[in-house]
Amino acid sequence: MVKDQATEDLIKEKAKVLFFQKGFLDATTQEIADEAKVNRALIHYYFRSREQLLDSILEEVVNRKRARAKAIFTSALSFREKIAVYISAIVDQGLMYPYLENFIISETARDPERANMLCSPTRTRTTELIRDDLAAEIKAGKLAPMTVEHFMINLSSMCNYPFLAKSILKSVHGMTDQSYRKFLQDRKQIIYRAIFNEEMPEVQLTPELKSILS
Amino acid sequence: MVKDQATEDLIKEKAKVLFFQKGFLDATTQEIADEAKVNRALIHYYFRSREQLLDSILEEVVNRKRARAKAIFTSALSFREKIAVYISAIVDQGLMYPYLENFIISETARDPERANMLCSPTRTRTTELIRDDLAAEIKAGKLAPMTVEHFMINLSSMCNYPFLAKSILKSVHGMTDQSYRKFLQDRKQIIYRAIFNEEMPEVQLTPELKSILS
DNA sequence: GGGCACGTTAACAATTTTGTTAAACAAAAA
DNA sequence: TTTTTGTTTAACAAAATTGTTAACGTGCCC
């Protein structure tokens, strides 16, 4: 024997390519196996069922998102710099994995239990990491009063929705792939301005942040 | 003979209940037939295939959205009032049909051709209806400069995303159904303020608008 | 080398799902 | 009453999909 973990990782990796990059959200076990060039039975051997493979992928990707958010929001940056980096990270991630959000949305909609599983109370809540910073901004009169929940959702709405609605946007505004990507790049500034009403600062990333965001 | 159009409408109607309200986005033809209490073959008799039933539903719902938007944006209201009404209409629609956006997003992602079909160049583009108003606001210095595309997407992102991410939101912030609905009501003001940086006005709807939005 | 442990494969079984069809049926027209 | 037209039904066929299993292969330890 020589493969072991390697095969399991390969299957997961190729499944993610199908789901997140090729957008084939209802890929069958056969299609996943083909993509990984392995026998379909191996998927069951390693993951028991298609469902559990999806669970495993969903959990991994959500944890990864959480880890990135945590790294950003516990960094030494100023509040507004953190938000700038966060926006940029989400948009960049969307450009790299265009259907990742579709996957998360559609899987949690299909079975809301999954959302609970992923957000157990013991996990770090991103909202808690910015609650005080946000309150300070508001108290200083630099931001219209709102709860941290509304703030976070304004933020993630504007970052994520354009990826979810990709085909509609492209149709409605007659965009090519090229101009769609340009549009998303522009959005980084647009989103920041929509939130803070000022220009987005250039942020110098620490090596640590750089590596976790790559 | 007595049914005809009635049966066809019934099937479509019940399918929409399944998709938009119960959130069963991958309902089978059998499940649709059960919901409508008709024989499954009738679905094929009237709609030929499951796919064409979905097409028909998707087209209807997108046209309906477009018609509402057009009614709002061609009304006699001021620009900011129009936006206030638009926000309110979208959120209310989401409360009524919680999975309608999920349906649109997942169907257009599954087959981007559909998005083209729905947004043919001959259709009225909502963006065109507000382009001039928006330019005037910006010129008057009442709004940060941005293209009408970014403006519209900021708007629809903040309105629609909270419905798409419903289960995640509820998990992350520990919301009940009750508090989730309250949260969405609050968002109307929050979204308006995020865009215009001022309180949302009370708008008196004309009877015509009232009827098309009901 | 022989046996062990694990990975891999092909074949099979079971289920689900879509789409078709021929017959039954019901109302209106002739 | 018979015919005609369009609707509804049950039964069937075909395809797709998931999960299981028994056999096979391959390296490794003794």
Notes on the structure:
Two copies of one chain form a homodimer. Chain A is mainly α and 214 residues long. The first copy, chain A, is globular, with a radius of gyration of 19 Å. The first copy, chain A, contains twelve helices and no strands. In chain A, 38% of the residues are buried. The structure holds a DNA duplex (30 and 30 nucleotides).
Short description:
2 copies of one chain form a homodimer. By secondary structure, chain A is mostly helical.
List the helices and strands and how they pair.
Two copies of one chain form a homodimer.
Chain A: H1 5-21, H2 29-36, H3 40-47, H4 50-73, H5 79-96, H6 100-110, H7 112-118, H8 126-139, H9 148-164, H10 166-172, H11 177-196, H12 207-213
Helix pairs in contact in A: 1-2, 2-3, 5-9, 5-11, 6-7, 9-11
Chain A binds a DNA duplex (30 and 30 nucleotides) through residues 1-4, 7, 28-30, 38-42, 44-45, 48-50.
Terminal Cα span of chain A: 33 Å
N-to-C SSE string of chain A, H for helix and E for strand: HHHHHHHHHHHH
- Over the alpha carbons, how many angstroms does the gyration radius of chain A reach? 19 Å
Going by helix content, strand content and strand pairing, the class of chain A is mainly alpha
How much of the sequence lies in strands of chain A comes to: under 5%
| Chain-averaged pLDDT of chain A | 95
Using the alpha-carbon principal axes, give the shape of chain A.
globular
Residue windows where pLDDT falls under 50 for at least 5 positions of chain A? none
Query: How many β-strand stretches of chain A?
Result: 0
What summary fits the major beta sheet of chain A? none
Q: What proportion of the residues of chain A is helical, as a percent range? A: over 70%
| Oligomeric state of the chains in view | homodimer
User: Greatest interface and its residue counts?
Assistant: A-B, 52 and 52 residues
